[in-house]
């Protein structure tokens, strides 16, 4: 019985992590407004080591469509500028020797639709991940029943709980996607 609860608990924890990953992925998708999370996935070649940009600089958003990136090490400025330029943000940063200014142009309708497609793909990836977690937990539960550690009734109850857990997490992903789509369509 407690083995089933352990399997359910582990599945819930892993599904919650999948939602956190989805939130990070959605945060990295550009909307009409600038925000520091957009830079979260950018890696900079910092003296031969690929380092997350968030570890190399601070971010400020003085205006809706402008971000200021302040590197801790001014010597890394060209590498940071290059990483931002080559990222999928579609921007051309410029620096004044102190900070890197990143101006975000107004999103075109076509670009918004592309970002919505990206968001839907990321949402589907997250749902697949959640379903894979469900399948693994279900197999572990069935093995417990086959080994004689739990009865059929306990297994059926646990599988129902697992299905509810799965549908709750999938609906959270759908809610995140709906919110992101609305954010992208906002002009």
Q: Topology, pairings included?
A:
Blueprint: H1 2-28, E1 43-46, E2 49-52, E3 57-63, E4 66-71, H2 77-86, E5 94-95, E6 100-103, H3 109-146, H4 152-185
Antiparallel strand pairs: 1-2, 3-4, 4-6, 5-6
How would you characterize the overall build of this protein?
With 187 residues, the chain is of the alpha+beta class. It has 2 domains: 2-27 and 108-185, Ribosome-recycling factor (Topoisomerase I, Chain A, domain 4, Orthogonal Bundle); 33-103, Gyrase A, domain 2, CATH 3.30.1360.40. 58% of the residues lie in helices and 14% in strands. The strands form 2 sheets. Strands 3-4-6-5 form a 4-stranded antiparallel beta sheet, covered by helices on one side. A two-stranded antiparallel sheet has the order 1-2. Strand 3 and strand 4 form a beta hairpin. Helix 1 packs antiparallel against helix 3 and helix 1 packs parallel to helix 4. It is elongated, with a radius of gyration of 22 Å. 27% of the residues are buried.
């Amino acid at each position: 019985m407690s083995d089933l609860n352990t399997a359910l608990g582990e599945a819930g924890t892993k599904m919650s992590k999948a939602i956190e990953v989805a939130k990070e992925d959605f945060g990295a998708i550009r909307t009409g407004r600038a925000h520091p999370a957009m830079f979260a996935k950018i890696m900079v070649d910092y003296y031969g080591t690929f380092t997350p940009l968030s570890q190399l600089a601070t971010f400020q958003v003085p205006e809706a469509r402008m971000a200021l990136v302040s590197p801790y090490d001014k010597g890394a400025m060209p590498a940071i500028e290059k990483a931002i330029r080559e990222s999928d943000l579609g921007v051309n940063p410029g620096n004044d020797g102190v900070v890197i200014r990143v101006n975000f142009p107004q999103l075109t309708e076509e670009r918004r639709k592309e970002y919505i497609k990206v968001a839907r793909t990321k949402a589907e990836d997250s749902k697949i991940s959640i379903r894979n977690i469900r399948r693994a937990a279900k197999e572990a539960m069935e093995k417990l029943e086959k080994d004689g550690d739990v009865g059929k009734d306990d297994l059926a109850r646990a599988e129902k709980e697992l299905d509810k857990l799965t549908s709750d997490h999938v609906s959270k992903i759908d809610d995140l996607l709906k919110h992101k789509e609305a954010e992208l369509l906002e002009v």
